[in-house]
Design a protein that fits this description.
Blueprint lengths: L19 H10 L1 H10 L7 H6 L3 H16 L6 H13 L4 H13 L15 H4 L2 H9 L6 H8 L8 H23 L24 H5 L7 H4 L8 H21 L4 H22 L7 H7 L3 H4 L23 E2 L5 H12 L3 H14 L14 H14 L2 E2 L6 H6 L2 H12 L6 H6 L6 H31 L1
Parallel strand pairs: 1-2
Family: Belongs to the sestrin family.
Organism: Chinchilla lanigera
Pfam family, one: PA26
Length: 466
Amino acid sequence: DKRIRVSQPLTRGPSAFIPEKEVVQANTVDERTNLLVEEYSTSGRLDNITQVMSLHTQYLESFLRSQFYMLRMDGPLPLPHRHYIAIMAAARHQCSYLINMHVDEFLKTGGIAEWLNGLEYVPQRLKNLNEINKLLAHRPWLITKEHIQKLVKTGENNWSLPELVHAVVLLTHYHALASFVFGSGINPERDPEISNGFRIISVNNFCVCDLANDNNIENASLAGNNFGIVDSLSELEALMERMKRLQEEREDEDTSQEEMTTRFEKEKKESLFVVSGDTFHSFPHSDFDDDMIITSDVSRYIEDPGYGYEDFARRGEEHLPTFRAQDYTWENHGFSLVNRLYSDIGHLLDEKFRMVYNLTYNTMATHEDVDTTTLRRALFNYVHCMFGIRYDDYDYGEVNQLLERSLKVYIKTVTCYPERTTKRMYDSYWRQFKHSEKVHVNLLLMEARMQAELLYALRAITRHLT
């Protein structure tokens, strides 16, 4: 029997990265959070994700509403299938936290227990989602209308377009949520009631909390970096200074389209080297091998477990094709397609994207009255840049000015290989900032990632329709 009992988290509270008192304070004050949970939580309790997100109640509301809608409200897919798709998505990043949660809900909504033995036990049409699950999670730019055609034209196992859109929304939601879980160091739930035998999964014989404590990768590049030299206060001052300067320069300078394209290509190329160049090449390969061994509990839900985000620039393959955001935007194209095929989800997602993008308290660490727009935009656009999405009207030079190296390493890891995130990476950037500000970063990364995956999938569906 491969099931291993998960050891108790080494840190108490909902997150291994954030002191418990910070999260608890937010929750005790906020009656609103409890009301939201009563209304929209599918598990019916205040789980660790919700507790950490409740540092931003406004956002939490849009998040819970859209998640509740895709899991519980009228929609093309039967309830158990929704949870099974969530499990398949979370398994791409070995996210045992989300897998456990949805195994539980899958059974509660009447799912067939046998399916939990692995993909060979599920109906063919669910199995057919493997390819698109894999591509969306790791290389969404490879999705073509042929993938869509294959799913909607396979005879008795075919997917209708509304069902497929529902599935795609779930897959992208749970890939992105896995980024949030690992990026925020979410601890396993301590839940004595869970008795079903499928409950207890751990990855690589240590629990998620150990990942948070760096037992998986000692992050050599960050340890050896020169962060000690610049103390964190001046790091904050320097960042504010750069934001101010960019604001002023933007009013003066008129950069040519050509120069803007060059800056994007440069940033895109550099982003490919961010983690891999720094972190992994500084280890003998053997340290890293066990990271790739996925316990059978997780691997039973996926095919091709070795498939991951591709740093193709390093492998000398052709470059990541640029997706010009103007050609297919969420606002003008994605939103209406989603809404047409799976009514109302478009509005809920749109509200959630806007909410996180515009969320601000006009503070940075100890400073008040700060306009953080440039910083939020740099974070969002950098994630899209790693997925090959380019905004014509954005100067990618700003990314380099605003996001220092350790933050880029963190963003890349959380977005592309969330299961490798460590507490040291989380601690290494923005050391003066409040934890709630770092959680805000994780919310931005999660939503930017979800939107990027969705855009590629919806563009392929649109091409299939035309």
